[in-house]
Write a structure and sequence with these properties.
Mean pLDDT: 97
Low-confidence stretches: none
Helix content: 40-55%
Strand order of the largest sheet: 2-1-3-12-11-4-5-10-8-9
Number of strands: 12
CATH topology of the largest domain: Isopropylmalate Dehydrogenase
CATH superfamily of the largest domain: Isopropylmalate Dehydrogenase
CATH architecture of the largest domain: 3-Layer(aba) Sandwich
Shape: globular
Largest sheet: 10 strands, mixed
Distance between the termini: 18 Å
Strand content: 15-25%
Number of helices: 12
Order of helices and strands: EHEHHEHEHEEEHEHEHEHEEHHH
Bound molecules: 1,4-dihydronicotinamide adenine dinucleotide, 2-OXO-4-methylpentanoic acid, magnesium ion
Structural class: alpha/beta
Length: 359
């Protein structure tokens, strides 16, 4: 059966890592004797340059008709001077909202071969395995009003949630915890924010239906510290949009590089959106230095959650594990003085291994 996958490369290294991921998806399709329809769409700065909009209608239609969407990253200094609604990032927020993918799953796990790539002590990071469930379509990034006032002398951003928006993402986090180690950490700022107090109430309400899941509430400032001091104790962390954004970049340090963190954004129906956690990395764009593994691992999540091909997901994850165990490192993972390979080289190794595993 054919699949329709929308490919949104975006900007900077987003373009480089999705180009490699497309090869990987084609290998998976070929292993089933199928040709999948991989159609590219414009988003972010690339879309602005060509159409004047960071999220053209055509891209929206392409994604809405797809079985899954794979996105690279958007943004860069070229577009930093633009007003908020014209920035590349507005395209990213727009596609997440339009697809209503309210739960952004960001698995954080350490790879045995990468313990020394983290600046943290190996014994601290060994065996870490938790997942951040970040609310993705509400909260501070979407609330209105969001504007400069009084001729620019004042400014407002709004943190808005409905109980229903909180409940659905919290429920998804409880379901995940139930199928894992049964431990949920909810992160908020309930000592200061009214939205966080309601968040906490909803977590307690939903908890009543999950007696097998233990619940811990952490204030976000303390959570930032605990994630680094006792990462092994976390199982599922659920939190507001911006808190999840920040905490997941922090958690990347545990794994050795943000170039290793994939994500899956899911809603009730419609296509899932799959993207690496990292951004467009203008500092290394165009140099073949990007680590494509976060995007490959996002493809694995796509195979598992949207395309219902778990064997392919396993094959990709095992191939990534394989290159890491062989000591293959892109520059972000290499220690000082250690040799590193370029984007295309590590990609070719993983692709070859996946082909062999699925043959
Ligand atoms: N999902 C998205 O599209 C995101 C977009 N952005 C945008 O990206 C631009 C740059 O943002 P930054 O704050 O610099 O975050 P970033 O994630 O792009 O880069 C942070 C640091 O990590 C490194 N890095 C990131 N991904 C890497 C990879 N795959 N391999 C090797 N090194 C990697 C970069 O070289 C940089 O030093 C901004 O315009 C921002 O708005 C930022 C985060 C997410
Ligand atoms: C535009 C930002 C919200 C992108 C980002 O940092 C993220 O989703 O992790
Ligand atoms: Mg981020």
């Amino acid at each position: 059966m054919t699949k329709n996958i929308a490919i949104l490369p975006g900007d900077g290294i987003g373009r480089e890592v999705t180009a490699e991921a497309v090869k990987l998806v084609q290998i998976v399709a070929a292993s089933r004797g199928e040709t999948w329809n991989l159609e590219e769409g414009l988003i972010g700065g690339a879309a602005l340059d060509q159409t004047g909009s960071p999220l053209p209608d055509e891209t929206l239609r392409l994604c809405q008709a797809a079985d899954a969407v794979l996105l690279g990253a958007v943004g860069g200094p070229k577009w930093d001077h633009l007003p908020g609604d014209k920035r590349p990032e507005a395209g990213l927020l727009g596609i997440r909202k339009a697809l209503e993918v309210y739960a952004n799953l960001r698995p954080i796990q350490t790879w045995p071969g990468l313990l020394l790539a983290s600046p943290l002590k190996p014994e601290l990071v060994e065996g870490v395995d938790f997942i951040i469930v970040r609310e993705l379509t509400g909260g501070l990034y979407f609330g209105q009003p969001k504007a400069r006032l009084d001729g620019g002398e004042a400014v407002v951003d709004t943190l808005h949630y409905t109980r229903a928006e909180i409940r659905r993402v919290v429920k998804m986090a409880f379901e995940l915890a139930k199928g894992r180690r049964g431990r949920l950490t909810s992160v908020d700022k309930a000592n200061v924010l009214e939205s966080s107090r309601v968040w906490r109430e909803v977590v307690e309400e939903v908890a009543a239906s999950y007696p097998g899941v233990s619940v811990e509430h952490l204030l976000v400032d303390n959570a930032a510290m605990q994630i680094i001091t006792r990462p092994k104790t976390f199982d599922v962390i659920v939190t507001e949009n911006m808190f999840g954004d920040i905490l997941s970049d922090e958690a990347a340090v545990i794994t050795g590089s943000i170039g290793m963190l994939p994500s899956a954004s899911l809603g009730e129906a419609g296509p899932g959106l799959y993207e690496p956690v990292h951004g467009s990395a203008p500092d290394i764009a165009g140099q073949g230095l990007a680590n494509p593994l976060a995007t490959f691992l996002s493809v694995a999540l796509m195979m598992r959650h949207s395309l219902h091909f778990p064997e392919a997901a396993d094959a990709i994850e095992q191939a990534v594990h394989g290159v890491i165990e062989q000591g293959i490192r892109t520059r972000d993972l290499a220690r000082s003085g250690e040799a590193f390979v370029r984007t295309a080289e590590v990609s070719a190794m993983v692709c070859e291994d996946v082909k062999r595993r699925l043959a």
